[in-house]
Amino acid sequence: MKKKKIHPIVYFSLLFVVLVSIQAYFLYNTVLLKRNEIKARAKGILEKVDVDYKFLEDTNWDESLYKWYEYPDKKISEASFIKSMKFVNDSLSPTLQKFVEQQYKETGLKLAFKKELKRVYDLKAHNEIISNPLVIYQTNPKPEENYLLSESNWESTYSASKTEDVENIDPKGGIKKFVSQNSERSYNITQAMYFDVLNLNQILYKELWSLFLVSIVLMILVLWLYFQSYKKYKEQHLQVLLLHDTIDNVAHEFKTPLATLKVASKQMRIIKKDETLDLMDRQIHRLEHLLKPLDEVETLDKKATEQQIHDFLQDYTILYPEIHWNINIQSKDDFKMSSVEMETILGNLIENSIKYGGKMLDIKVLQSQDSLEIGVKDNGIGIAKEEQRKIFDKYYRIATNNIHNVKGLGLGLYLVQKTVQKHQGTIQMKSDLGKGCEITIEI
User: Fold this and answer.
1) Binning pLDDT at 50, 70 and 90, where does residue 33 land?
2) Which of 288, 286, 280 is nearest to 259 (CA)?
3) Is 436 left (phi over 0), alpha (psi -120 to 50) or beta?
4) What pLDDT is recorded for position 249?
5) 230-252, pLDDT tens digit by residue?
């Protein structure tokens, strides 16, 4: 049972998802880096200026701040203190926001910040006076994200004097005394400042939109290139299928006359034995051998034997008895090429030599452990120097006085060159007009 092939679109989809994921990861990290850069820029701007601006001194904003000193004496409740702080903050916010906009307008950053009283701890009573953060002041609009600008912690001592009337009863008469009492308390105070860049997303969009656009265009381009390539692939695949169907039909049509020829040859052998019948049988066998790869692709890789090459060349000696043949075949093992490839090279070289006047042919097929050498030398009309670079071009034929005297399609030497290139071999030619031609191939 053949394993079902995975469609190329599946492979591409997986690769494309990976590519998009990598691109998204880098874009996400770019946004994070840019966001941190903008926050660092804003923090640097705010750190250069003391946030407790001079104009706040006239507002007496800090008078309400320290009313928690009166907590122990219960002169003010926590609810009243929080309400007082909120009132001060609400009254300061518009003025503070206007000042901030004037200070940082040129930076292009819309900054917001706030100052909080985070904690007040009574060191003498060992209890939390304020445990939940209270806003001392903040801009309007307030920060949406609280990025820490600074945090401070210190100890503060508060002293207060208290005078009481004490009446001392004496037998001689009443005496009133005034007694003064001093109370001192120490507190641990923690305050923090936070900031935010209100137009952070707008700045990110402004600075990174081109990067996102390029990334999207690249992804679209990759998709377009893939589908264009896939479209071409489908067209070529269809052409290959049509070509295979055509070849199969041609091969099928050849099989019937070949079978008829084989039967006729056997019948003729009964009547008369002739060397020509041997030649006919070999040619029929050769045609069957050439058609067989069309049915079984594996035979294309089957290496040629010395006997196959000998029989192949022997057929030419029978077909052209007027030619003087000098054949030298040497090989200890099977050749490095298939019989189809060997016959393609030798057949085209031999037929060209005969077509162009060769009457004496020297053919050598020598194979050592590391190399294969194929050579064909003739005494024909030769090839001019300016023609030697062109004869391996597809459909090229040598013309004399613009007339093609030799029949052919100009494909023979082109097929030879392609076969040699497939095996990374080389072709050398020695020829002069009137002195014949020698072609040597090394694999």
Assistant:
1) very high
2) 288
3) left
4) 64
5) 888 888 888 877 777 666 666 66
- Look at residues 101, 109, 103 and name the one whose alpha carbon lies nearest to residue 199: 109
The tokens describing 129, both together, are 């006076």
Angle at 378 between CA 377 and CA 379, to 5 degrees: 140
Query: What is residue 7's DSSP assignment?
Result: P
Whether 93 has a pLDDT exceeding 70, the answer reads yes
Residues 395-436: tens digit of each pLDDT: 777 655 443 445 556 677 888 888 888 888 888 888 888 888
Strands 134-138, 175-197: pairing is unpaired
Helix (H, G, I), strand (E, B) or coil at 70: helix
For 260, how many CA atoms within 13 A lie in the half-sphere containing its CB? Answer: 5
Rounded to 10 deg, the angle between the 200-271 and 8-47 helix axes is: 160
Got the DSSP string for 216-268? HHHHHHHHHHHHHHHHHHHHHHHHHHHHHHHHHHHHHHHHHHHHHHHHHHHHH
Distances 302 to 292, 314, 329 between C-alpha atoms, Å? 12, 21, 19
pTM over 0.70: no
Taking phi first (over 0 means left), then psi (-120 to 50 degrees means alpha), and beta for anything else, what does residue 207 get?
alpha
Structure tokens at 281: 């049988």
> How many helices (H) does the chain have, and how many strands (E)?
8, 10
For residue 138, what are the contacts with CB-CB under 8 A and spacing of at least 6? 89, 93, 96, 112, 113, 114, 115
Domains of the chain: 64-168+175-198 (no CATH), 302-442 (3.30.565.10)
